[in-house]
Specification:
Length: 309
């Protein structure tokens, strides 16, 4: 069996990389060092930490997650500066870390800027997803407002919206609305492609490294909910539809985002062109065989839908 990098999913083709479980360049991109650091965290305490953090951080969602920061050369909970989010295995839904990891890689392949992430092994040998926080640069906190905040909705109303509402938010607040409208279109489209039924208003945000230049943040929390919830519909409807979308719906949503018709068609073609490499990522992923087969089938089926077949 070919050993795969737990960050990029490519083959580990030398002994040093195989021993680390990652390519040195991948580790440097995620951690700033050539090998994954140790994580000072007892997997049995993850649930307790999650409960203690509830209501005290900006992290949301049903998946258990904790913030980690640097302490000397290790990562630990309750560090002075939060640099990463760690998502362990879920007791409710299997293989969510592996699921999100491969979906983030597929999104990146499809031209979406994503949060830097990878899989790590905890002390009990289970895989967890670790994600570099997009709202941090060293000790600096970057201003970030999610689409719930920007639409003046409460967190519990994160599903009370639409893809068109998100488009209006981008056009109202982004410094370069045309560019970010195209980026938003691509992110909503790719979320549908991978079967992500949880792209809600809190999973989209504007980031302001320069206070006068807010832009759509790198994508985060992308996973295929269809792997664990059969026929899971979209969280935010497109043209009033949460399911059974077709090529005409996506071209109409592109028009709503003010994409020229030629550019809209190129965006749909981008997905088709990415399909072979996306399938290779799925096959190389750490998902179980049945999940790999289900995700691959979904990707192929939805490319056919985009082609109008």
């Amino acid at each position: 069996m070919v050993e795969r990098c737990t960050i990029c999913l490519a083959a580990l083709d030398d002994a040093a990389s195989a021993a680390r479980g990652v390519h040195a360049k991948c580790a440097r991109a995620l951690f700033g060092v050539s090998a994954p650091p140790s994580i000072e965290l007892d997997p049995e305490q993850l649930y307790l930490f999650g409960q203690q953090m509830a209501g005290r951080t900006t992290l949301s969602g049903v998946q258990s997650k904790v913030s980690l920061g640097w302490h000397q050369k290790t990562l630990r909970v309750r560090a002075p500066i939060s640099a990463y989010i760690l998502k362990p295995q879920s007791a409710t839904y299997p293989e969510l870390p592996q699921n999100e990891h491969v979906c983030m890689r597929i999104a990146e392949l499809a031209g979406i800027e994503v949060a830097t992430c990878g899989l790590v092994r905890l002390s009990n040998d289970s895989l967890a997803l670790i994600v570099a926080r997009v709202d941090r640069e060293g000790e600096r906190r970057i201003a970030m407002e999610d689409f719930c905040q920007l639409s003046a909705k409460l967190p519990r109303e994160k599903y009370d919206g639409s893809a068109e509402l998100c488009s209006r938010i981008v056009r109202s607040y982004a410094a370069e609305p045309r560019i970010d409208a195209q980026r938003l279109f691509r992110q909503v489209l790719v979320s549908w492609w991978i079967g992500n039924g949880d792209l809600h208003l809190k999973n989209l945000a504007l980031l302001s490294r320069d206070p006068s230049r807010p832009k759509l943040s790198p994508a985060y929390d992308l996973l295929s909910t269809r792997l664990v919830i059969a026929d899971d519909p979209l969280a935010l409807p497109v043209r009033g539809k949460r399911s059974n979308l077709d090529r005409s719906d996506w071209l109409a949503f592109a028009e709503y985002n003010e994409l020229p018709p030629k550019l809209a068609k190129l965006e749909l073609e981008r997905i088709a062109n990415a399909l072979p490499d996306a399938l290779a990522l799925v096959e190389a992923s750490f998902l179980r065989a049945e999940f790999r087969a289900t995700l691959a089938e979904l990707l192929v089926e939805r490319v056919r839908v985009l082609a109008g077949a």
